[in-house]
Amino acid sequence: MDSEMTASTDLLRIHGYASLQPGPRLIVLGGVHGDETCGTAGIERVVSALDDGSLQLLRGQLTLVPVANPLARRLLRREGERNLNRLFRPTAPGAEPADYEARITDLLCPLLDRHEVLLDLHSFQSEGEAFAMIGPRDNQGPLEPFSRAFEEGQLALHLGTPRVVEGWLDIYAAGLAQRGQAADEAALAFGWGTNEYMRSRGGYGVTLECGQHQDPAAPDVARRAILSALRLLGMIEPDPAAAPPRAPSLLRLVSVVDRLHAEDQFVREWATFDPVARGEPIGVRADGSMLHAERDGFIVFPNAEALPGTEWFYFAVESDRDLTRPAPALSRAWSR
């Protein structure tokens, strides 16, 4: 496909709403991956409610992007030319965008720069319940320095999912080392998605995995999450009937296993968050060797269709993190 043609014919549709009263600046993305349609449907429902007046923005600014990757959506596949949720950084000044997704990133990055909170809506290939993904705890380390973990955790808590998962960039760096690749700045940059970019700009963000791609309930999971975020931030009227959020189960990603050969097979059909016991068989390699669970834990994002050399599944364990309690204050490593 001619990327110049697609670049000239695709449009990035952006809905912007600004109250006359100052307040938080929230951006919601859907369709970062083209085969994940629930976020788009949830956003469209919120757009309709705002446009017909049944939902009122009381303060702050709200930006809604129903389809963040138009090419991938037209093709109804995860990627257009590459994964938009990797290497999510603007093109260097004076350089030409390397591909279609780089052109999209060059439009989305300045848009994210004008906001302080991101909700990125996704879905996944295997069966499983909706869950939220958050970034690191407050830290001043070299990988992903951060000082808004409590706010980010509160957003995840109020989305109402039964589980929250942490540890993405740490495990991405570990995956590089596992493949014998240097975890240098250039390699780690490819692990950057929308949330990592937002955190690097002084904001914070949560990825909501709304369920399996075809789950008919997933669009409403997305819609409710947008409304929950708006209520938490005081941007719309509170719901007097809403119960306090229940503490979710919190998991930490600890490893990623790649599919090495097209003949690598799971021993059964796994769903995200299926529990496994230490030593339990998970898959069989092409050479007949059995892959066992390294410890008690949970399967995350199993992908029986993964291409050789890409992520086959992630492994998670229970986390000791408490989303309800702020950590000791850290000095900010940046200003906005």
From TrEMBL:
Which keywords does this chain's UniProt record carry? Hydrolase, Metal-binding, Zinc
Q: Where is the Succinylglutamate desuccinylase/Aspartoacylase catalytic domain?
A: 22-123
Q: Does the keyword Zinc apply?
A: yes
Query: InterPro entries, alphabetically?
Result: AspA/AstE_fam (IPR050178), AstE_AspA_cat (IPR055438)
Its cofactor is: Zn(2+)
Q: Looking at the Swiss-Prot or TrEMBL record, what is one Pfam family this protein matches?
A: AstE_AspA_cat
Q: What protein is this chain from?
A: Succinylglutamate desuccinylase/aspartoacylase family protein
Taxonomic lineage is:
Bacteria, Pseudomonadati, Pseudomonadota, Betaproteobacteria, Burkholderiales
